[in-house]
């Protein structure tokens, strides 16, 4: 691959995440200003859905930052950012319901979620260690080191890929719960879906970039292997 091709490649993998982040921020900022028709805050929406599923043991906490909302399966805590926790926006309703979707997955032992949790230590180690082995393999022209790096990086990529069905499923659960419990009205469902779809783009972008990088490293290994033949 020539220098020009490398530059184009790196521009592409930088633009994809930036575009996805911009999309989710713009969509969130638009609908966080639109109040929902029920007047319920994100915390109230979350509590309603949690209780409906018997998840009385899951606490809801306020956390700082924006779009820092998440479910902690270890402590059984749902953490919502301030604008979601206190706000009664369409965006807040959608995000809160999405995070509750993860709590429901946890309760039901949703297989992709369990698999993702099992990959966390491997992915954390692989994402850091892989670069050391890959760089060492390149500079030392060592196929073995490069292969180890590629394998470690593949573990991190697998985590990104497995995250996709987990997030998509949580969003589907969110929309079903919001509609079934009457927490959004018919005209709000499309806007809630827009918020969740935009958020999903960040995971799709991360997985796409990771897969592209893995492919680059695999081709690098194949090329080095061919040079040694």
From TrEMBL:
What InterPro entries does the annotation carry? Zn_peptidase_2
Keywords for this protein: Membrane, Transmembrane, Transmembrane helix
Q: Where are the transmembrane segments?
A: 6-24, 119-140, 146-166, 195-219
A Pfam family annotated for this chain is Zn_peptidase_2
Source domain of life is: Bacteria
By its UniProt entry, which PANTHER family does this protein fall under?
A: MEMBRANE PROTEASE YUGP-RELATED (PTHR36434)
Give the protein's recorded name: Zinc metallopeptidase
| Organism this protein belongs to | Pullulanibacillus camelliae
């Amino acid at each position: 691959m020539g220098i020009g091709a490398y530059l184009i490649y790196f521009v592409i993998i930088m633009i994809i995440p930036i575009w996805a982040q911009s999309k989710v921020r713009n969509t969130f900022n638009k609908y966080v200003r639109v109040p929902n028709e029920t007047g319920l805050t994100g915390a109230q929406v979350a509590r309603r859905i949690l209780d409906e599923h018997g998840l009385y043991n899951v606490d809801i906490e306020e956390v700082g930052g924006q779009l820092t909302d998440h479910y902690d399966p270890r402590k059984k805590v749902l953490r919502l950012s301030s604008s979601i926790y206190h706000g009664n926006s369409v965006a807040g309703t959608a995000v809160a319901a999405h995070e509750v979707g993860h709590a429901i997955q946890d309760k039901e032992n949703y297989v992709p979620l369990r698999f993702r949790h099992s990959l966390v230590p491997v992915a954390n180690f692989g994402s850091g260690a892989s670069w050391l082995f890959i760089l060492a393999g390149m500079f030392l022209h060592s196929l073995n080191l490069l292969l180890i790096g590629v394998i470690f990086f593949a573990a991190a990529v697998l985590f990104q890929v497995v995250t996709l069905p987990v997030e998509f499923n949580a969003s589907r659960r969110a929309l079903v719960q919001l509609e079934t419990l009457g927490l959004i009205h018919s005209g709000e469902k499309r806007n809630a879906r827009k918020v969740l779809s935009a958020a999903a783009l960040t995971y799709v972008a991360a997985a796409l970039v990771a897969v592209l990088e893995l492919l680059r490293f695999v081709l690098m290994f194949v090329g080095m292997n061919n040079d040694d033949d």
